[in-house]
Amino acid sequence: MQQVLEQVDRQRIVEIACKLADTVSITGEEKEVAEYLGSEFERLGMQVEYQEVEEGRPNVIGTLKGSGGGATLMFCAHMDHFDNPQETVVEDDRIYGRGLVNMKAAFPCYIEAVAALQKASVQLKGDLVISGVVGEIEKAQIGRFQGKNYRGAGVGARYMMDHGVMADMCIIGEPTGLQLQIGNAGLLWARVSVDGRATKFVLAACKVAQAIQDWEKEYQRKNPHKFMLPTVQIGAIDGGNAFKPGTRPTTDIFVIVKMLPGAVPLAIKRDIEQVCERVRKREPDILDIRVDLYLTTPGYEISKREYVVKAMEQAHRTVFNQPVPYAKPIRYGITSDGSRIAAYGVPAITYGPGFGTHLVDPTETKAGPEWDAPSGVRRGVGIENMINCTKVYAMAALDIVNQKKDDVAKG
To answer: What is the pTM of this model?
Structure first.
């Protein structure tokens, strides 16, 4: 094992991360990054396959074949990012650049983990798969926002699984600060359209928005979970005509609901409708309220008894000589492609480099109070963090692919 750990190449991790950050791959524009990753997979001797999810948007799948009989492990990451036009900078122990935190920084770790295993000349019985998928960023077509740049929320991972890329287990390198996460909440987006009297329609809609936000406490009370925290958030509002204020007396409120695994979207829609109806009855300026769902993704969770969890716990302990920390409840509200993969009976966990939303990196040198903002200079990843992550991935892969696939399936 020590021989594998010694093979991890810091410079290669930095080189690949910088190349990925320099390559723009906003949702809908992932082709260039897919081709670059394909070339890196070929350098590792992996079989490379491209899946054309739609024109100009290929998934890329690299497979390193084992000698036979072992379990198959998939490393999965999405290639798209929400635009953050910052220059790629390597400063001290950190790299700043487009999409690194969410989640291009996982790819150098995957690639160098496989390279370290190869350089150490260890035997691998099972297959190792690295998949780069399009369209994970939570985006949905609605209203004037149409086209491939708004087709996200797992379209690539769903296509990948629908078209036969399978594994016994999966590791997703979303940023967790090297904490282990055994599932994530689902996502529901609702548009609540409020028709009001022309003189007060925006103010009337604000009362509806406040009532929905206040409903969060009731929603959480009715949906307890041992390690996930379901939440409700007013994410956007669109009312009237800006070019002539006071016209078009309809205001659209866009609501984000994080759902527990197994939640029924229609039941949540009806709960929101009940909240809205209570407001409508007491507010004479509201004429009508309509609730429409326009995006849902399921939540999922796996048992700590799954072999992928045990392997990651042991791999983390090998590298850090201490138990792996588990993610806090609010972190489970960050969705991932895990639900799309787990739907096919593939146990998936999240463990990755970087400190994204709801996680603060104490080594961050540039960000201030705006750390949790949706954009900005906070999008840096620690190089040492990536090196350690790579080592954990390599140890987990060495363990998993040398397990008999029949034994893993029974587990």
So the answer is: 0.94
